[in-house]
Every structure is written in structure tokens, then in C-alpha cells.
Design brief:
Structural class: mainly alpha
Helix content: over 70%
Shape: rod-shaped
Radius of gyration: 32 Å
Order of helices and strands: HHH
Number of strands: 0
Mean pLDDT: 80
Strand content: under 5%
Largest sheet: none
Number of helices: 3
Length: 114
């Protein structure tokens, strides 16, 4: 289960990096700001440009990245708690077993041989 979560997390992070790198920078120059900016600002399809789609995809993938990080951290914490409890139970059983065997050897030593 943890391996699956890690693989999903890595895939989401790669997609996030790719979508961020595909976006245009804020400093496109004066020509890009006038020509491209005017068309997308006044045009009918301002929500359908590649940059707008990439922004939406980036936001969704970033949200998925945060959710997968929280799920992975929660799963890891629960797994560590379960392992710690199992270890404590095992140690407690070994201590009780050791005390029980010591008690048997002491009672055998105390009984006189006939």
C-alpha cells in the first residue's frame, strides 16, 4: 500500500513540474504583452487559451500533490504506530516469559531434594 502511494505521489510531482515548466514566464517582452495579452483579454476565448488551461491544470495537480502528501504522511504515521505497538507487545511478552521461567527455576531450587 505504501509503495503504491509513493508511486502515485511521484507521478503527481512529475506532472506538477512539467505543467509549471510548460507555462510562459511573466516577462514575455513588450510584443507578447501587447499582441497576445490584448487578444486573450478582449477575446471570447480568454478562458480557453493554453496558458489558462495550464494554470487550471497546475492548480488541480498542486491540490492533488498536497492531498497525496497528507495521505502518505498519515499512512506512514499509522504504520509506525502499529509497528511500535507490536514491538511493545512483543517485548512485554518476552519479559513476562522470562519472569515466568525465572520463577520456575527459583521454585525448583527451593524445593529440597529427597
Amino acid at each position: 500500500m505504501q509503495t503504491t502511494l509513493i508511486i502515485i505521489h511521484v507521478i503527481i510531482s512529475i506532472i506538477l513540474v512539467v505543467t509549471v515548466l510548460m507555462q510562459h514566464g511573466k516577462q514575455q517582452g513588450l510584443s507578447g504583452a501587447i499582441a497576445g495579452g490584448a487578444e486573450t483579454f478582449f477575446g471570447k476565448n480568454k478562458g480557453r487559451t493554453i496558458d489558462a488551461v495550464l494554470k487550471k491544470v497546475t492548480a488541480v495537480v498542486a491540490l492533488l500533490f498536497i492531498i497525496s502528501s497528507i495521505v502518505l504522511a498519515t499512512y506512514s504515521i499509522q504504520k509506525d504506530k502499529a509497528e511500535t505497538e507490536a514491538l511493545q507487545t512483543e517485548v512485554q511478552q518476552q519479559v513476562e516469559e522470562h519472569q515466568h521461567t525465572e520463577g520456575e527455576t527459583e521454585t525448583e531450587a527451593e524445593t529440597p531434594a529427597e
